[in-house]
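Late entry, zinc ion complex.
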Amino acid sequence: MTKTLKVLGIESSCDETGVALVEVRGSALPVLLGDALYSQIEMHQAYGGVVPELASRDHIRRVLPLTEQVLAASGQALADVDVVAFTRGPGLAGALLVGAGVACALGAALGKPVLGVHHLEGHLLSPFLSADPPEFPFIALLVSGGHTQLMRVDGVGCYTLLGETIDDAAGEAFDKSAKLLGLGYPGGPALSKLAEQGEGTAFKFPRPLLKSNNLDFSFAGLKTAVMVQAKKLAVAQDCAVEALPPQMLADLAASTQAAIVEVLVKKSLIALKESGLKRLVVAGGVGANRSLREQLNAECAKRGIRVHYPELHLCTDNGAMIAMAAAMRLQSGQQTASEVYAFDVKPRWPLDMIQIGL
Ligand code: KG4
Ligand code: ZN
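Prediction complete; structure with ligand written out below:
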């Protein structure tokens, strides 16, 4: 009989509480049995960004009801869970501690082992939950609110960092530019929505490191360029930036998005060319961006490259990707779950360190 293993995953690294249950059946790709998510966006909106202490407190409120919801929806009981996985890092220390603490308490109470997962590995492996999962090896473009990285992925746990941002992440560039255009938090989805009404060539914003001889990124200068241009327009119109004519704001948004997307697409294509690989996986919140998807799809199609994305709702933080990463690590023998319930979290944790156990 094929051995099955049910893995409960808890994500609490930032402003989303996510819980999911995944089942491992032999060597087949693990299957998602159920997942639930609570986003704190509305709570943080009043402050224009994530307030870490509020985030931690809210995770405490949400995590057990979400767990009950996932178990009920998937027709399982707590006693059916074989392993409890949680996000060990990177992320906000207090927020991570909630997920780690609850996971270890559950594990200890149930007498089941626990496993700490790298948040970015969760993003990286999330396309394996889609209807069109990738195959190893591939190039991964990881674009989240805190990270922008290109990696070569040869298997579960075999990650080679090819390049990364030297300052702001792509998601941060979206969020900061959106904020200064008065679009609130989180800015990425709002800016990309507004960009649909605008012209991406209206303003020429910098494409940093595009011609550098490496695969690194730099997005910190972009928000300054957007701010200078927006203020110039505001002075000319004699109004505040947020009160600029709608078309002008849309053109600013579209030009910002065009700059970010062009750099991400071109660097991804260089990584693919240099590695000779014909598969690209895009993961992380910015992977939900429609323009990025359209341009990557078009450029990759011309070169015979397959592009894989997570399902749209699994691009941003969620519990399914944590349960999946844990399941795939267990299945591949990369890690065993532990019955030691003394946990720690790693607010800063480079992904390529996990293969040497750091
Ligand atoms: O992966 P994620 O949920 O959280 C982190 O691990 O950081 O990514 C969140 C980031 C935010 O910066 C958000 O603005 C951005 O992803 N984002 C988008 C879109 N949806 C989310 N950026 C551009 N276009 C989108 N449609
Ligand atoms: Zn994330």
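The domain at 136-309 is CATH 3.30.420.40 (Nucleotidyltransferase; domain 5). Will revisit in the morning.
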